[in-house]
Structures are given as structure tokens and as C-alpha cells.
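Below is how a single chain appears once it has passed through the pipeline. First comes the sequence as given, then the structure the pipeline wrote out for it. We keep one example in the README because the format questions we get most often are answered faster by looking than by reading.
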Amino acid sequence: MIKKLFLFFVFSAILTSNAQYTPVINSNRPGFSESPYSVGSGVYQFESSIFYRKINATPTFSNPEALGLNLFFRTSFITEKLEFNLNTSLQRDKIAFKNIFESSYNKTGLSQFSLGAKYLIYSPKYDDKSKEIRSWKERHSFDWKRWIPHIGISAGLNIGNFLTDFHERGGFSPKIGLLLQNEFSDKLNVITNVHYDYIGTDFSQFSYIITGTYNFDDYWSGFAEMQGIFEEYEKKTSIGAGAAYLFSENLQFNASLRANLQQDEVGFYSAIGVSYRINRHQDEFVEIDEFGNKIENEKQVKYDEDRSFFGRMFSKVGKLFSKKREKKVDLDISPNNNDDGLLNEKPRRERQESLVDVIAKEDKKQKKKTAKEERKAAKKAQREAEKEAKRKEKERLKLEKEMKKAEEEEAKRKEKERLKLEKEIKKLEEEIKKEDQKEQQEDQEKEDN
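Resulting structure:
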């Protein structure tokens, strides 16, 4: 089920410019970049992470170490293309002073608090290669329109009054951003963000983020990201990678690891997080007639001015319990039409099934088919295994018979050789005995002479 819903999400994100809602959770984590798409109306999404950052202390005051919790809340309720969000972080900072000597102290509080919104202003339409049946080459060729990105804009307000003194940057300050996303394939997409933050303060900064995400399968995805921050007296660079796991339609787990470069010092940043959404989205249904035309709402009937309020109210109550007459259309329009003519009932207006229900039914049907094929394959494999076992047993018995026969022949041959050898030995003993007798006889004759 999740696989087909995930494919539906990818299809919707690429080919549809109006629909923002997706059946599967669409999270920005574990990257820092933002997609130009919103979560969709009726969705309340929480993206949280626990992070740890460490780097060597730099001259004067610096923040070499931090442990915190980040929360990014997203929702949409006015239009599908518009999203509102809140981004805040609670962290424990190590504040270090480094000059001739080095000292430090810890401080806990909010390090970030901002309200923002983003809006999708353009979404390109790509060619559907699956409908190309004349040319295999055209069907599998790259669509160069995919270099045209989805475009969104963002704006927000940083509120520094809630932050700790080390992170406070001039109280209230606006921020703006440009959000781009390229869908190069169903598995690979690249997000590019350009932001101008803390506008009008002494800490204004430009930043860019480039994130590449690849979906290995329906559950696992990996990403690589590069971020650059340019301030008046400082430049920061971050390179990271991570992975995300889709546990269910509304729950995702993620982890990331980054290398930070700041004032010739190299540090690291690690985070683990979870994204969860409360889905209250409702699809808009369009009723159509038997010809495929949209059914417009009927105009309200004006009440009779002479009828009183209670009269109108009781009239409505009475209609709830009255049986509605079926409207019929006379198909015989001849002049001699009578009451016995053929009548046809007006087609009933039926509400179209949602795409999610259709996918669920197809998935159930596919599961039954797959289970049947698996049982059939298991029986076939069992029959093949039994047949193979019988064949091996037959070969074993044949081999044992041949070995037994060879052993018997070898035993007969040895017995024959043994008897032949005994016979030769016996013959040799008789010859020796005859020679001895002959020698004794000759010796006796010599003595007699």
C-alpha cells in the first residue's frame, strides 16, 4: 500500500501544479533546505530533531559547543499553495572567551524563534514518457524540461526578544528567500535555496543551500547538502550527508552528520530527528453527470413571503419523512404517446471515488493475486524438491549396488589369487621335498660304497 501511495506522491509532485497535499508525509528533514511545496490544507506537521555541534573556540567570544532541540511546525489552511510555519530551537550553549587565556560558561535558552510563510508561484509540467509507444528511445530519453525548476518564495519574521542575549540579533527583523526544486527523475531531485536574513540589522546575512536527495526504494532515501553563509565579518561553510526512513504514511525518521568550517576551524554537527503529521486533509469531490459534465449546485428556492417562519420550518421537517418521487423522462415523443409508453429513470448522480480508494482496491487485488502465485510457486517447488529427492535416492541405491558388486568381484579375485598362490607354494614344497629325498639317497649310496 505504501509503495503505491509513494508513487502517487511522486507523480503528483511532478505533474500537478495545484495539488500540494500528498498521501505520504513530505518532510524537509534531515536537510536545512526547504521545498517550494507546502504540506497541503488540513495538515499539521511537526519536524523535530536533537542536535549536537562542536568546534574549536575562536578569538574573543564564540559558541564552540551546543546541544539542543529544534522544532519546525508547518501547516496550510487558506490555499493549497500557501504554507505557514514556525521555527524555534531550545539549546544549551557553551560560551567561550579566548584571548591570552580561555574561559567558558554554559547558558540555556531559545536560540531561534521565527514565523514564516512560503508560496508556490510556478510548477512546470513534464512530458509523460509512459504514453510514448512508437519509439523506445523517446520513451526512455531524458526530458530536458526537467531543468526548469519549481519556484517558490518565502518570507518571515525573526523575533529576537525571546532569545538569549548571545543569539539576539536586533529584536524583530524580516527575512526573504527563493526556493527552487528540480525533479530530474522519479528518484533524484535537487533543491536550491537562496536567503537574505536579518534584514536591516547589523547581523544581516546571505546564504545558499544546495541539497541532492535520492530515493533508494519506497522507504529509504539519502541526501547530500552544501550550505554557505556570508556575513559582514565572517563566512561559514557546511557540508553534510544523511538518510531518512519512511516508517508509515505519517511518520519519518532521519539522521545526519555535517562538517562545519568557520574562521579556519573545522567542527562537526550531528542530528537525529523525527517528522510526524496530523492529517485532517479532505479531498474536494466534483460531481459529474452521465455525460462527464460538472453538476452545478441548484439555486435556492425563495420562500413564500406569506408563509410564516414556523410554517417554513415544519414544511422542511415534513419533507425529511416524505418519499421522494423518481423523476422520469418519456422517451416516446410521438404524437400518439399514451401512458403505456416506455419511461426511463433519470440517471442517479454518483460521487466519484477518490484516487486513494482506487489505489487501495488495486493494492488488495494485487495482494490476492500475488498470494495465489506464491502458493502455486511453493507447491511447484515442493513437487520439484520431492522429485529431486527421489532421483538422488535412486542414484544412491544404484551407486551402492555398483559398489557392492565391485567389492564382491574384488573379493573373488583376491580369493582366486590366494588359492593359486597356495597351490604354487604346495607344488614348490613337494619339489623341495623330492630333492631332499634324492640327496639323502645319494648320500646313502656313497656310504654303502
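Residues 1-19, 326-351 have pLDDT under 50 and may be disordered.

See the next section for the split statistics.
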